[in-house]
Amino acid sequence: MFTKLRPVVTQWTVVVPLLAFAVLALTWHRELPGWVVGVVSLFLAGAVLAAVHHAEVIAHKVGEPFGSLVLAVAVTVIEVALIVTLMIDGGDKSATLARDTVFAAVMITCNGILGLSIVVAASKYRVAVFNAEGTGAALACIGTLATLSLVLPTFTTSSPGPQFSPAQLAFAAAASLVLYGLFVATLAVRHREYFLPVTPDGKVVEEDDHAEPPTRRAAVISLALLGVALVSVVGLAKGVSPTIESAVQSAGLPNSVVGVVIALLVLLPETIAALRAAKRNRVQTSLNLALGSALASIGLTIPAVAVASYWLSGPLVLGLDSSHLVLLTLTIVVGTLTVIPRRATPLQGAVHLAILAAYVELAITP
After folding, report:
1. Are 214 and 60 spatial neighbours (Cβ–Cβ below 8 Å)?
2. Residue 277 and residue 250: Cα distance in Å, rounded?
3. Which of 132, 214, 275, 279 is such that its CA lies 20 to 30 A from the CA of 174?
4. Angular region, 29: left φ>0, alpha ψ -120 to 50, beta rest
5. pLDDT for 247-296, tens place per residue?
6. pTM of this structure
């Protein structure tokens, strides 16, 4: 898996995250001219690539599935902090921000990253092979948490509109934390073998034999630089969002397209890491990244916004509209059918990508 990965930290992967963070500090909360946006975009791309490198160094040191968990949780924690900050400062216009961000993350991870990973692996190795026990458990948690947090508010009657009452929101937040905690415990402690890559004949791949693991010092440095890179990715994505918003408005597109573009930028590290794992026929690692990111997005965002709701001046709208409810249901059903056989062909991957394309199309033309 890590044949080409050097255990030492290469020079560019140290310099680029630090420079990207410096650019973030210089441009935060400022209006950016066009040429500065171009520079910021270059550093954003560099920070994404550096984040993937450092995530792979950590993954090689701690092993799977812990490496996938580190990247998924790190990205989500930073993203949640950004969401809460924007909601507290945004007033009524941020009422649907948490819902839109979480749903975009679910669609992109469960259809985009998952679909691309299957297509890449199955095209190269004929079929994509994975562990149904771990993947099915993750998908079940995603379906449950998405329903409790994003579907039920549309149908409850205690509060007007697609909103939870305070008691209902507290329950959804507690359920999200408990289920996500149980998933992490299952992944990391009791049934780690369910989340390890498997060979075409179903044998679990415990360790990689092609490269020496990095030293503890290199892993610690990579962990610190991963945090710097991810903060830079999320912050710089937020910095270029006004330019994206202006371009979207100039094109006459709905404002929801902005959220989709920002979500795509923020999830780039997971996407690249998942595709690189799929090329090495480690499809389970790709699915851990995809589904783990979706779970972390729901399991951490809902409790965070529940706490933040005490300081929010405007409403907190979590319920999905009818078209998104259909797409969520289709995603869970198709995901279940993909997982059950324990292997997938490019066709299954293409089906997931078609669902993502439908989501993007509805964001452009609701």
Report:
1. yes
2. 38
3. 132
4. left
5. 777 888 777 777 787 778 778 888 888 999 999 899 999 999 899 889 98
6. 0.82
